[in-house]
Structure formats: structure tokens, C-alpha cells
Amino acid sequence: MSQSQRILSGMRPTGHLHLGHLHGVLNNWVQLQHEHNCFFFVADWHALTTHYDSTEVIENSVWDMVIDWLAAGINPGESTLFIQSHIPEHAELHLLLSMMTPLSWLERVPSYKDQQLKLKEKDLATYGFLGYPLLQSADILAYRADCVPVGEDQVAHIELTREVARRFNHLYGRETGFEAKAEAAAKKMGKKNAKLYKTLRKRFQERGDSVALATAHALLEAQQNISLGDKERLFGYLEGVGKVLLPEPQPLLTPAARMPGLDGQKMSKSYNNTISLRESSEQISKKLRTMPTDPARIRRTDAGEPQKCPVWQMHQVYSNDAVKAWVQQGCHSASIGCLDCKQPIIDAVLKELQPIQQRAKAYQQDKEAVQSIIALGCEKARDTARETLEDVRAAMGLIYH
Ligand code: TRP
Ligand code: SF4
After folding, report:
1. What angle do CA 153, 154, 159 make, to 5 degrees?
2. Domain ranges, ordered by start, for the chain
């Protein structure tokens, strides 16, 4: 991936962020922002799909979440941070896409039925909840994002986004005189490149040669002197479709650095097994000291088995080989107690959170700074989304002169 790749991801503001978010999402975002053009946003409309009857949760989480992002190292000089509901283009694109999205595509997204079953206490038989993944598609396509960093559970939503983009391009990507325009665009790359493009296109269309397709993509990516519109035409012409108005995004699977919760299950608010980023040192130490261990190790003199212990899973995240060997040896021989075993983790978590909490405190005391970061981010995001929507409206015939 290159610097010009656009990355977009969002998070729902539905409570305090915890170590699971830090290890599963935020550290990854921090890395990505150094290498790519990143957009990160607060998905407050998505939170509404499940919290429409308890909106105070959202209201209370939005600024804290942004502060946690900044505290974790998201740099507003590198990344664009914004709030979904401040960019009405997301809603407009969602509406426009809803016109051409078959109902069955939404009904068969696995999270639709799964979440309804999981959150039984809520009535999720709503219009908005069914549309959740399509709103997500609009989020992504409004920025023509190349890659979307997500967890495993979101891959089906990216797949839907790709299908929706394909359908959109198929329905609306045909401009009058498309072929002639594409041929003219090819010439703008220079004689040699135009010829190469033609050959590669032919090889792909006649023989389905995927190497030729990839080579042609690379050729187009490398062009500095042709407009975005021409580039899209050439991408579209290559594969025989019309102009690629909305490019298909790729999921960027977050490396599964699974942060275990205090009980060994995945750390998650719904399991009540979290350590939040803003918890006090006392509270964190207490939680870790009292977390369960190998249930067979009843007395200090009983040997234990790290494989059966959630503390061991935390050592996988926080400890080096020497400490891990010390745990294995000490646990199997009962030469260390469980509190001894937990101490390096307590130390590591506190050390990890110390600078984060310090930065969070500074931002909390300077709410204006946080608000202006978001205001700037919204402006930048909106410029990008506006451009896409202009193209979308034109393609759908919604510009009346
Ligand atoms: N659905 C995502 C989640 O629950 C949040 C989200 C909303 C998102 N819009 C997005 C993620 C766009 C990536 C891209 O985690
Ligand atoms: Fe778990 Fe460590 Fe106790 Fe062994 S010594 S049971 S690994 S906490």
C-alpha cells in the first residue's frame, strides 16, 4: 500500500474504551496513520441503531472516545478525525444507495440476525438496524476508501460494500461516449503507456489474464498526470464496465492481537471483564490481583497449568520470553504464587496506561482543543465526501439544469 492509499474506519460511541480497543484497534490505527491517508470517525448514527432508546449513552461517550483516541496516539496532524453525523453526505449517500440495494442483501448479512438474537432485550426489528451495513457502505464509499481496517466480525459488511459499489457502477457508470472518452484518456498517458494499456486490456478481456489486469492497475496507479475522472474511466474500461464511480474497498484485517479479558474470554463490555483506559492504578491493580487463575490451583502449594489460566493469556500480550519461561517453570512447580505471577502484568499495564492517561487528562482539561480538532477534521472530511456526492448525483441524473 502506498501513501496515497485512503484508509477509513469508524467506531461506535457506546461506552468507555478499554484495553481490548487499544490492542485490537487503536494501536493499529496509530501505525497506519504514519503510512497512509487516514480518516477515523465517530459512528454516532451507527450507535443510534442499537441505542435509539438510550441516547444519553452516545452523548456521554462521543468526546471521551475522541480523547481516548488522541491519548492513544492518534495524531490529528496525520489523521483526519470527524463525527459521522456532522457530515450529512453520509446520510444522503445512504439514502441514494438504498434505492438500488436489494432487501435480500441486507437480510442475509450475518450480523443482522446474530445481533438481534444477542441483544434480545432490545427491539431491533427496525428499519434503521436493517440498514446498518448499508450506512456503513455509505461511510466507506463517500470517501472512496481503498482499505478499511476492521475485525473479523465486520468483513461481511465490507463484502456488502463491494457488492453495492459494483452494482452502483454497473447501473450508473455508463456515461455517454464512454468508450471514446476512455480512449482519449489512454492517450493522455503518453504513446508508450497507452499502447501497453491497450495490450494489457486485451489480454485481460480475451483471456481473463489476471496478471495483465494487475499490471494494468499498477500502470494506472503510477500515472501522475491524468485526472481522477480519467483514471476512473480507464479502470472501468479495463474491466469492460463503465466508469468506476465508487471503487470497491478492501478489508484490512486487524492482526488478531486478541486482548483477553479478566476471565480469559475476549475483552468486551458485554462480558464485564474489561480494564478501561481511564481506570485508576488502584482499581486496575485490584482487578488484576483478584482475577481468576487455574481453578485447580487451590492452595499455594498446588502446582498449576498456565494453559488453563487467563493470567497466562495476558502474559502472551505483555511478557517477554524470559518472563514467560519463569511463569511456566514457577507455575508447574508451585515455586511462585499467583500474585507473584500477576505482578509483571500489573506493572506492564500500569506502565502502558501511564502516558495515555496523562495525555487524556491534558485533553480533558482542554476541551476546546479537542473540539477544534474535530471541527477541522469535519471540514476536511466534508470536502472529500462532497466531491463524491457531486459525482454520485450527476451519475444518477439528479442535477437539473
Ligand atoms: N460497524 C463498525 C463496528 O461496529 C463501525 C463502523 C461504522 C465502521 N461505519 C464504519 C467501521 C465504516 C469501518 C468503516 O465496529
Ligand atoms: Fe495462572 Fe500464574 Fe497462577 Fe499459574 S502461577 S495459575 S499461570 S496465575
Report:
1. 125
2. 6-173+247-257+367-395, 178-238, 278-364
Q: Does ligand 2 lie within 6 Å of residue 327's CB atom?
A: yes
Asked if residue 144 has its Cβ within 6 Å of ligand 1, the reply is no
* CB of 80 shorter than 6 A to ligand 2: no
Please give the pLDDT value at position 254. 80
DSSP secondary structure letter of residue 152: G
DSSP string, 43-88: -HHHHHHHHTT-HHHHHHHHHHHHHHHHHHT--TTTEEEEEGGG-H
Q: The domain 278-364 belongs to what CATH superfamily?
A: Tyrosyl-Transfer RNA Synthetase (1.10.240.10)
The rounded distance, in Å, linking the Cα atoms of 328 and 334 is 10
| Protein fold of 6-173+247-257+367-395 | Rossmann fold (3.40.50)
333 C-alpha to center of ligand 2: Å? 11
How do residues 279-324 score in pLDDT, each as one tens digit?
A: 999 999 999 999 999 999 999 999 999 999 999 999 999 999 999 9
Q: What is the pLDDT of residue 241?
A: 67
Quote the ligand 1 centre to 390 CA distance (angstroms).
24
Give dist(CA 294, CA 296) in Å, integer: 5
Say how many Å lie between the first and final Cα of the chain, rounded: 41
User: Does pLDDT of 59 surpass 80?
Assistant: yes
The answer to whether the beta carbons of residues 75 and 34 sit under 8 Å apart is: no
Site to substitute for ligand 2 among 338, 342, 343, 345, most atoms within 8 A of C-beta: 338
